[in-house]
Amino acid sequence: MAELALFGGSKTKQKPFPLWPQYDDNERRALNEVLESRVWWRTPGTKTLEFEKAFAEYHGARHGIAVTNGTAALEVTMAALDIGPGDEVIVPDFTFIATASAVLFANALPVLVDVDPDTYCLDPELTEAAITPRTKAIIAVHMGGHPVDLDRLASLAQKKGLHLIEDSAHAHGSEWRGKKIGTFGKAGTFSFQSSKLMTAGEGGIIISNDDPFERQARSVHDCGRMPGEWFYSHFIYGSNYRLSEWQGAVLKVQLGRLEEQTLHRHRNSRLLDKLFAKIPGITPQKCDPRCTRNGQYAYIFHVDAKQFAGISTENFIAALNAEGIPTQASYPPLHELDCFRSGEYRKCLSGTQATEKHEFLQQRFPHTQRAAWETVWIPQFALLGDEQDIHEIAGAIGKIQRHAPAIAANATQATAERVAR
Ligand SMILES: Cc1ncc(COP(=O)(O)O)c(C=O)c1O
Q: What does the alpha-carbon distance between residue 220 and residue 197 come to, in Å, rounded to a whole number?
């Protein structure tokens, strides 16, 4: 039986995974065109404008507003919806901080809600229970590329008169019942940060089918200007969230690869589902049959330590990385972050909202806890590999399972040595 790479044996993975980000002469040409045009600024430019139109059209949206990053996309959305002091916005406890910090940036309260135990996306039932007369919006995250239950959340938002915002930072090209995500509610927001499914290093976009919202959001992202009006007229609160022409040009090229890459990742992930079904203790994030295409920002799976000699997730990940399989970190529960624990977040609030008890912070969030501390994430670029790569991921996990008692013994010895010191 081959020795674990962690203890000096040979790695399962000898052939490297595809590199990320991907680029070729098309990005080179696009960047050179911007360079030589001397139009590097979005305002008089054409590249970012063309990209906005193409990205929106690809997702079945009438409008796209490119912004500096995915956090900015959420902040502009909050401002355009006039969300402010005294308001509450429902946000999953299991997400990146930006989903909640954009609400705090608007001086409103992010109310944290637990996720579904199988999809790790916002739980619709708990969302409904968290609605109060102050609730103005729900920000749902398509975790790892898997859409939230859009049937239930869209109808809940409609029934209660709330804005539904899809934080789609992980889900470019994902589909729910054959329709691209991003337009099931008021707006969809995306990130183009380096690890995302298409990238210009940084960047973001808001898409929407709502004309008045689009006008407002476009104005907020451009210092409160209105299209067609004098350059130095500023009608509402706004800031500079514009994307540069460099990024617009690169993203237009990246968008051209999205369809093929999404299909490739979706296909490989379903193969991984089948291979993992044969490994006791490995439970992949559920792919709901209504998710007809999963952008698969990450392949997330739960590890039952009992089937791996009780080893910690940390030790499992170290062994997997040693076998040559890359992973990316899961998110800690938001309610456990310093800014919530210390009360620092209250500085963004005012009036009674700043001082009253926030009951949701007393909850346990069991499904977020499990997702945060017991799941392993395979990054999207590894899913762009070939079938052999996918078989090797499963092979590495099988190898770890066979050698788990050795990992457990090593961890026990390391702890004993630490205590003795
Ligand atoms: C779920 C989610 N929302 C929002 C963001 C913010 O995007 P950005 O990093 O582009 O500001 C991210 C980025 O990591 C994210 O994962």
A: 26
Residue 281 lies in a domain: no
Q: What is the pTM of this model?
A: 0.97
Written as six digits, the tokens of 212 are 């008045």
- 205 and 187 in contact (C-beta within 8 Å)? no
Indicate if ligand 1 lies below 6 Å from the C-beta of 139: no
Instruction: State the distance from the centre of ligand 1 to the C-alpha of 416, rounded, in angstroms.
Output: 40
- Counts of helices then strands in the chain (DSSP H, E): 13, 12
Q: What is the CATH number of the domain that holds 205?
A: 3.40.640.10
Domain that holds residue 247: 25-255
Per-residue pLDDT of the chain (421 residues; tens, 9 = 90+): 469 999 999 999 999 999 999 999 999 999 999 999 999 999 999 999 999 999 999 999 999 999 999 999 999 999 999 999 999 999 999 999 999 999 999 999 999 999 999 999 999 999 999 999 999 999 999 999 999 999 999 999 999 999 999 999 999 999 999 999 999 999 999 999 999 999 999 999 999 999 999 999 999 999 999 989 999 999 999 999 999 999 999 999 999 999 999 999 999 999 999 999 999 999 999 999 999 999 999 999 999 999 999 999 999 999 999 999 999 999 999 999 999 999 999 999 999 999 999 999 999 999 999 999 999 999 999 999 999 999 999 999 999 999 999 999 998 888 888 888 8
Residue 384 is which amino acid?
Answer: L
Gap from CA of 387 to ligand 1 centroid (Å): 30
Residue to probe by mutation, ligand 1, list 95, 191, 192, 300, most atoms within 8 Å of CB = 191
Query: Would you say the CB of residue 204 lies under 6 angstroms from ligand 1?
Result: yes
